[in-house]
Amino acid sequence: MGASTRLIEARGCLGGIWTAGLLSWILDWRNKPGFMAELAHRLLQSQSARLYGGSLAYIPERMKLLLEELCTEAGVRVRLHTRVSAAYTQDDRIHLVVTDSKSGREAFAGKIFIDTTGDGDLAAQAGCAFELGRPEDGRCQPMSMLAILAGLDPQKVAPFVRGLAEPLGQPDPKKHLLEEMKRAGVDPSYQLPTLFYLGHGLFCLMANHEYGVSAVNAEEITQATLRARAEIHRLVEALRLLGDPWSEVQIVATSEHIGVREGRRIRGLYEVTAEDLRQGTQHEDAVCRVTFPIDVHAVDPERDKGIEKAAFRSQPYDIPYRALVARDVSNLLLAGRCISGDFIAHSSYRVTGNAVPMGETAGVAAALAARSGRTPAEIPWKEIHACREELRSRPVPPV
Length: 399
Prior knowledge:
single chain, Alpha-Beta Plaits, three-stranded antiparallel β-sheet
């Protein structure tokens, strides 16, 4: 769209949880046209990803390169290793963001800002109201550190691997992996340990839960990171000592950034609620349709170390554009898990297949607003939708 765009990234690669967090799979992406479809096509075309039913498993290092290539192609000015530390606001608008990096303290001006920090850091710095955790006690879902493994034969470990076990008539690879870990003398903090095959001899392991950790407390995150990395090494070493098929297993990498499921939920012009999930609410200004179920990872390890049972079965529902528009700052948009929603709804829409169309739509709205001197709330949805559809008109082969 020709908008001048600067992307400020705290870590040394783009992609957040996809890359620095080694997430390695994308959920709820199938019904997402536009940039999500293009991204999936490029990953599959380059043999950087594999399809497993509704999930897309990818190699994080390939994702890093692809995202950098896409931003370079689009003329985005990328700044890595730079953290936004403050926002200067006046008359309900952000005028400057202040950053800290190896270059020292700097300030960047802009017409429209988009918070894609996951935890709503910029929105909070700008004074936006937010919610954090469960309404009754503020407790958040646990964090998880992920690891990339090598040295395993996919055929030999197939009964323990999600996506490989099911075609063999073994429907519960998580249960089998838990039993194998207990046979090795270790009991993971996440009782539904999951192993994915990424291709090219690489696997992703999720077997860690860090309970009671705040996404907005650096000391708590630090201690969780230390505990999590130690646990992953302990689990994998125990499996290796079992012998075949684990005798050659090695940890290639643990995530540089621990996986945060839940941070601030910023107040927007619309709050997505559990009732929307129950009713399958549809909106005229639908950014995307969420099909992922309620997925609350157990908050209290004394009661459960897996997934909490949902009170009801959610229906496919829409994320409205209004949930991406910050209520308290007029030139701020939100995308990803920090959008406006309640605790239950967030557990469903937080997966990254939904974050992509949120970011895509926020980008379109920001460009329209900046170009015309309007605020995001003043842009009619019909205008955003028409522009987004025009961008999506480029043919992308189906995957």
